[in-house]
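Just curious. Invent one:
>
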Amino acid sequence: MATPLEDIIAKAIKDADKSFFNEDYTKQARSVMNALKKAGYEVAPVRPPEGLVEWAKENIPFGRLRPAELITQMYSMMVENVRRFDK
């Protein structure tokens, strides 16, 4: 079973900053983002950034794919590239 996201986030914050005063929230946030990425997650907007859908259309995998395979590949491709267009 995968580690719950809350546990990943809590551990990342705990490990990032040991201070009791003047916590470095940017350091904590960076640690959370890195921990999520390491666990196989990506933080992405609910709606695709402008340009991502067009880019994905132009990069659809060629060949015969079952619908589930196509959707899985498209999802992964779009999530992996969301940072390119999220500006």
In short: Residues 19 and 32 are 17 Å apart (CA to CA). Residues 67-85 form the longest helix (19 residues).
